[in-house]
Amino acid sequence: MSASVVLFYLLGFVSLVGAIGTVTSRNVVHAALYLVMSLIMVAGLYVLLFAEFLALVQVLIYGGAITILLLFALMLTRAGSDFKGMDHTQKPLAILAGVAVLAVLLFAVYGTTWPQTVEPASVAFNILGSSLFNQWAIPFEAVSLVLLVALIGAIIIARREERE
Amino acid sequence: MIPFEHFLILSALLFAVGVYGVLARRNAVLILMSIELMLNAVNINLIAFAVYLAPTEFVGQIFALFVITVAAAEVGLALAIILRIYRNRASVNIDEMDLMKW
User: pLDDT below 50 — which residues of chain A?
Assistant: First the structure.
């Protein structure tokens, strides 16, 4: 087994442990930290796939920004004070649904005949960037607009209203 | 070379864990975290497809970038809504958010 395969299993296992920790932890802050663990390990997987730019974006946006936002939300809503009400009574059904989704996905993965796969290779940053700003310029602008509108909306929704 | 299917299996596992989290949690912020897990699993899939099946076009990588951006927008907006709900109802338990249910 080559080093990259060993690394893949290691990263995959830790990210799975992190994911399971996120959905089962009794402490909300621990859940958020498990989520960071899982997301950073996935960034490692991107590096194994030679998608270095995506790995950087993953660490910056998921590992940094989104986690900080989630932790702020946990603090501001005092979500950690209610340990009993954290898990739903429909937990067995949720496990059933998760297993069913997994079964369908695995069935699809093994039932499909994939085209010839190639050895993963690196895509240079500049090629990715020029493609993003030439071929994909309009979707890029659209997604920028979505982000802008969402952030303005978030500010307006979260703003404290003045008494009339 | 890591077998292509292994990435898909890992992503399926992460997605299933996310589905479980969305259904089993009551706290809105924890549900949001589970949704992030699911989006992340989709991204692994997209990038694996891009790298293994269409290495010259890397559309999957661009798509994953867009998914990450939309996820960031979604988290920002959802957390604002959750804060607002908490301010109005002093709770983020989704079972109590039944005002629009009939």
Answer: none
